[in-house]
């Protein structure tokens, strides 16, 4: 179970916060999509996603050699509500990352992926 302290500490980092908001917005994203949207390296994105998974905010799904992340199915209502409110009320904070993700030309189809390289 996620405590308020754990949640707010995990969301205090900009990369983790933007990752959570983008994943909430898109329902599911792979590392390469977050890499493109946030203009960060694969190791940095993967490290932050691992931290979010470890505390129970995210869960992953493998499709071949690719990993897709989504919000954990068993999150408490208050956690989902806080994240939804942050997403709804902070469009400017996420606008550049959302635009970059939308402009990504080779987004994965959940079968084949941009992560093949």
UniProtKB/TrEMBL annotation:
GO terms, molecular function: DNA binding; DNA-binding transcription factor activity
NCBIfam families: HTH_metalloreg (NF033788), PRK10141.1 (NF007528)
The HTH arsR-type domain, residue ranges: 1-94
Pfam families xref list: HTH_5
UniProt-listed InterPro entries: ArsR-like_HTH, HTH_ArsR_DNA-bd_dom, HTH_MetalResp_TranReg, WH-like_DNA-bd_sf, WH_DNA-bd_sf
Chain segments annotated as coiled-coil in the UniProt record: none
Upper lineage: Bacteria, Pseudomonadati, Pseudomonadota, Gammaproteobacteria, Oceanospirillales
Protein name (database record): ArsR family transcriptional regulator
Gene Ontology biological-process entries: response to arsenic-containing substance
Keywords carried by this UniProt record: Arsenical resistance, DNA-binding, Transcription, Transcription regulation
């Amino acid at each position: 179970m996620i405590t308020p302290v754990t949640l707010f500490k995990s969301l205090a980092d900009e990369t983790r916060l933007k990752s959570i908001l983008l994943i909430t917005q898109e329902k599911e994203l792979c590392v390469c999509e977050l890499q493109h949207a946030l203009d960060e390296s694969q190791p940095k994105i993967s490290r932050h996603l691992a931290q979010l998974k470890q505390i129970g905010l995210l869960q992953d799904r493998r499709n071949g050699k690719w990993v897709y992340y989504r919000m954990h199915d068993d999150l408490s209502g208050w956690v989902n509500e806080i994240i939804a409110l942050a997403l709804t009320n902070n469009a400017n904070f996420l606008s550049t990352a959302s635009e970059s993700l939308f402009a990504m030309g080779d987004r994965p189809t959940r079968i084949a992926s941009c992560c093949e390289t």
